[in-house]
Amino acid sequence: MSTRKISAASARAHTRKSSNIGRNNSRLTSNMIAQIAVGVMVGCLGYAYFVIRPPPPKICGTPGGPPVTSPRVKLDDGRHLAYKERGVAKEEAERRIIISHGYGDSKDFNINLSDELLKELRIYILSFDRAGYGESTPNPARSVKSEAFDIQELADKLGLGPKFYVIGVSIGAYPVYSCLKYIPHRLSGAALVVPFVHYWWKGVPAKLLKEALGTLPVPDQWTYRVARYAPWLFNWWMTQKWFTNLSIMHGSLDVFSRSDLEIIKQLPATPKEEEEKVRQQGVHECFHRDLMVGFGDWGFSPVDISDPFPNKDGSVHLWQGYEDKYIPYKLNRYLSQQLPWIQYHEVPDAGHLLLYNATLCEAVFRALLSS
Length: 371
Known about the structure:
Elements (H helix, E strand, L loop, with lengths): L2 H50 L19 E3 L5 E8 L7 E6 L14 H6 L2 E6 L15 H14 L6 E6 L4 H9 L4 E7 L12 H8 L4 H12 L4 H6 L18 H9 L5 H7 L4 H12 L21 E6 L7 H10 L3 E6 L10 H13 L1
Helix pairs in contact: 3-4
């Protein structure tokens, strides 16, 4: 074989070897890139899971949890509800009233009634921390329906008798709607004060719902949409720092009317320890879950509820401030028109805090108890 042929063969062999090495290096590079990409993706998913998943609650009365300082009843499912009593003794009372508090509040919220009036009307008032608030055990299975049966069991555990009144304030009204739906036979009457509205209720004109939602601050609109359509993302939405979520939680006063601002000026400052106590078991279990349940699927709409007092042995009252910027009056006015058994009270110069006005607060109780 000639030298030229040997050189050509060597060149071809060298070329094949270089090509194989190049392919192997390319495969190694591709594998490394794939492994890095998988690692990054897993890391991102892990981080996303970490920020989306709410932290575990710190349950009152458990090791490492907050102490129990209020009277509580133990429910059949093992949870506890903390409560507070006011007025005449329940054994002597002619009217027993259970109050469902609003968003970010508790059983300790101020009821602007004098002791003299409570004695005159022989009223016993029971307020309680709703599930996850204050010292009441969180309920991961919490729903609109479960709220009604929490109220019923609380009444039974404390011996309130076969019938009682219920009052729901703001977002605390959806448990009262639930009572009207599921346990109307236990009610002597009900009052819905500046009641929560659901912007995706069935049976209510979509145009009206859209218009009402559009009156709210844009951050609130998006917060309610996330609670409605992506509850699994809600903890992240409420804890992230990039966008404003619920405006009122960031100190904005835009949702308060002129009359509300006057009331706020007169209210004593809430001690920081009391504010912390409301959410001490975890902000997700009280604030977040309240909105998730409220804007979730109720299983019914208020317009589907039948008259709970067909024999006229009780009444339902709805109190709405015309100047309320937090709860659009048009929705509650519409509901009262569709449900003639609701006695509608629209107060011209009142806002969302109308119950803190002593005169209006007394009017709410007298109207409920006089029917």
